[in-house]
Design goal:
This protein is of the alpha+beta class. It is built from 11 helices and 32 strands. Strand 2, helix 1 and strand 3 form a beta-alpha-beta unit.
């Protein structure tokens, strides 16, 4: 990782925003050998306060595919974090190596991601912001707040819900205005507060400690220390919240403000729900909160953004390097827009179910009863954890368009895991039939050919058992692009569609 001080520079891709989505996208591009730069307004990766917390199972798998999951697991709290409208969803019986979530605050998630990116050739322009851009047929001129200008083939907006990139690109952001707002803060208190969740006519509120442990599924808070506060406001708030707003909100709900003082940060979030009408406009692309905003209920925002980046990175790299046509970028919107649209819908449903009203309470109890049954529980747990994502790649085997399981394979060189084949973000043609059966298949150089055997059962979350395939073509993001048959029907088209034409001698 390098810090740039030049007045004018050229890069293949410029990313604005160095949060989790921007960092993940930068890493994906760097792994593919693309010259990438990140413009980040913060002078360092330090993030005031802990912010959001938690990784869902599919995001942990994404990190495992790059060989970095252990970095997060070493610092987080393994727990069943998936839930729907406060109904906890256990996925410990799911067929995945990571059948759990991870309690880990966003400031640590960013720090660990930035540490990984720091090992890769990524240029950073810190303490600066993108103030505008002009795109032409060959690239994008990007203006920075310090007067510097960058030239890039593509500009990726990972700059949050108020995205300047989205606005300047003229991309519509339709959706729903907020119906509720909440204060969120990290503060010190002179008195020991009443921890836990409280419901009042104004909504749901919570007090907890930033320092905690999870034992036997229960959150154990450490005494003393910084307190995390979430307060639903009686009316939709506007403007920048203050310590006085927080104090008055605490008194209204708890009868005291517990001597609140020394805030690390105070912010306001709402259930505003919006999604970019297009994830791409010419040479400008959107990912993360720049492409979709919604209530934080269910903890899906950060996870969806990281997975946007995993989907986009390898595609953009191939287009930049000329191995794939620009039309490959159209599949980014086609695949990720429906995923986020579903997140928007389920967060809206959850917000409605969490309103404080006797009739809603009865409905919430009914939903909780349904989610206590195995089939609904598996369906919703797979949805909330991201393990059920299915890209529409046409009719065929149930694996097509779904995540490739991390199987324990046997090869001539010894045992290996499927995910270990994806550490370098390269596609894999995995032959599980007769060894050498695909040796003569023309394929792009980047596509690894691996002969292996697997004797276990094939099973997918929520779907259950599926037939064992003869071979699979695995994209760099871990999704299956083709499922084999002895006749190899469609393999050539799949290789060309996703990874370009094979190199000619």
């Amino acid at each position: 990782m390098t810090e740039s001080v030049s007045r004018n520079a050229e890069h293949a891709v410029v990313i604005t925003g160095g949060g989790p989505t921007g960092l993940m996208l930068a890493a994906e591009l760097a792994l593919a050998g693309v010259d990438v730069a990140v413009v980040e307004r913060r002078a360092s990766q330090d993030l005031p306060g802990s912010r959001a917390g938690g990784l869902h199972a599919r995001t942990i798998e994404i990190f495992d595919q790059r060989g970095i999951a252990d970095r997060f697991l070493a610092e987080g709290q393994v727990a069943q974090v998936a839930g729907f409208a406060s109904v906890r969803l256990d996925l410990s019986d799911f067929p995945t190596r990571h059948n759990y979530g991870l309690g880990l605050w966003q400031n640590h998630i960013e720090r660990i991601l930035a540490g990984w990116v720091g090992e890769l050739p990524v240029t950073f322009y810190r303490g600066r912001e993108v103030t505008g851009f002009v795109q032409d047929t060959a690239g994008v001129n990007v203006a920075l707040s310090d007067g510097q200008s960058l030239r890039a083939a593509y500009l990726a907006g990972c700059d949050g819900g108020r995205s300047l990139v989205r606005k300047a690109a003229g991309i519509d952001f339709p959706g729903w205005d907020p119906t509720t707002s909440s204060l969120r803060a990290e503060v010190e208190m002179t008195e020991e507060p009443e921890l836990g969740i409280r419901r009042t006519p104004s909504g749901t509120h919570a007090l907890g400690k930033v320092e905690y442990q999870i034992k036997d599924g229960e959150v154990i808070y450490k005494p003393g220390g910084t307190v995390g506060v979430v307060l639903t406001e009686p009316h939709i708030g506007t403007g920048e919240p203050t310590l006085r707003d927080l104090s008055e909100g605490l008194i209204a709900v708890y009868g005291t403000d517990y001597g609140v003082h020394s805030p690390t940060w105070i912010s306001r979030f709402t259930d505003m729900t919006r999604q970019a009408a297009a994830y791409r406009q010419g040479r400008v692309l959107l990912a993360g909160d720049a492409a979709h905003v919604h209530s934080p209920v269910g903890g899906q925002g950060l996870n969806t953004g990281v997975q946007d980046a995993a989907n986009l990175g390898w595609k953009l790299a191939q287009v930049v390097k000329g191995t794939s046509p620009e039309s490959l970028l159209d599949t980014y919107h086609a695949e990720r827009h429906p995923v986020a649209a579903r997140v928007l819908r389920n967060t809206m449903a959850q917000v409605a179910l969490m309103r404080v009203d006797d009739r809603i309470e009865a409905l919430r109890d009914t939903v909780a009863e349904l989610l206590g049954m195995d089939e609904p529980r598996r369906y919703f747990a797979a949805m909330m954890s991201g393990l059920d994502i299915h890209y529409d790649l046409g009719e065929g085997h149930p694996l097509l368009g779904r995540r490739m399981p991390d199987l324990d394979l046997a090869t001539a060189d010894g045992p290996l895991r499927v995910f270990s084949l994806l550490h370098d973000a390269r596609p894999v043609l995995l032959n599980l039939g007769e060894p050498g059966g695909f040796d003569t298949v023309p394929r792009p150089d980047r596509v690894q050919l691996v002969d292996a055997t697997y004797e276990g059962a094939w099973e997918l979350p929520a779907l259950g058992p599926v037939p064992a395939p003869t071979a699979v073509l695995i994209r760099p993001d871990g999704y299956v692009a083709w499922v084999g048959s002895p006749g190899r029907q469609g393999l050539g088209d799949a290789l060309a569609t996703w990874f370009g034409a094979p190199a000619t001698a």
